[in-house]
Each structure stands twice: as C-alpha cells, then as structure tokens.
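Progress against Task 2.4 (sequence-to-structure conversion) is shown through the following example record, which the project officer requested during the mid-term review.
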Amino acid sequence: MTEIVIVRHGETEFNKLGVFRGRLDVPLNDRGREQAQAVGEALRSKTIVAVYSSPLVRALETARAVAEPHGLAPVVDPAFDNIDLGEWQGIAKALVEREQPALWKLWMEDPDRLAIPGGESLADVRERAYGRALELAREHEGERFAVVTHRSVAKLLGGALLGMESGYFWRFYLDNAGYSIVGHAATGPVLLTWNEACHLREKVTERY
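Structure tokens generated for the chain above:
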C-alpha cells in the first residue's frame, strides 16, 4: 500500500495571535521549532522515502526536521504552498469578522463558495494539491512519502484523497505539527491516522 503522510508545519506567532497567514512567509516561533523536531522524532520509526514541502519557511523548516532522520533533504513543491488569502493575509481574524461580516459568514458556514478579494478558492487549492499528490503516489507506488504543508491545504488534500468532493473543510481539525496518513490500496483510499499529535507537549487550539 502506498502511504501519504500529511504534516502540518509547526507553530508561528501568527497562529498564537489569531492572524491569517496565507502566503506570508512567517517563520516558526520557538515552540514551533520544538514541535518540528518532535514530529520528526515521532516519524523516525516509519520508513519515509521522500519529503515534499511547501516553499514557505515555516513548512520548509518543519520538513527538514521530518526528512533528516531518514537521511533525506526536503523537495520544495509549489503545489503544496499555502492558500493565497489575498487581502486577508496578515489581518487578525477578529478584525475580518467585525469589518467583513458577510465574507466571514461564508468562511464559517460555506467556505467552498468564498471568494476572498485577491485570493484563491478552496477548489483551486484542492485541485493543485490533489493532482500533484496523485502524481507522487504513482511515482512512489508501494512506498511511504511525506508532504509538509499548511492547515487549509492539508484539510483539502486529505478530503480529496478520501474521495470527498466538497463541504468538508470544517469537519477536519489539525494541530500545528500534527500528522495524518492516508493509504492507497487496491480497494481504494484508507484513512490510517488523522491529526496524530501525542508528540506535542503544548499547542495552540486554532478552530477557524
């Protein structure tokens, strides 16, 4: 069975402050760096043949921690870059909720229909990440590889790999530096692990 390990990057200050990140290149904070090392250690015992990463530094630093125990270097892949949140990037979530209530309502209740000015749709992100993951699954047939990415991308990719079309974005929860594993078997996709986070000592709970 081919296994895809989906890893969310470690914590940043914007995660703590409740600020939308998007494509802003926000680095890991001290706890995020500890989390990156912890998820790397948690995955040490699993044979991983390749690690692919979003180009953003918070993901790439996490990817290096995942790759190092296996003697690998992460491969940067723009297909796993974070969602472009347009004018929301760098803005506090509470401010968006207060000043753009109609768009915030869509974000919370029907994000598949949301069009953030200057940003990507969830469908755009799902298409690029899922398409590339299928290519990599064919390349690594019968092996286990890792994708280190961002919360929105990981949710959309996980659902797509499991055959879900839409409407599932808020049904998945992910911690910083948590990991999930989706298997591809002859009988179809198999959810093996979702949001494994027992290796984390402390974390920010980020619900939206």
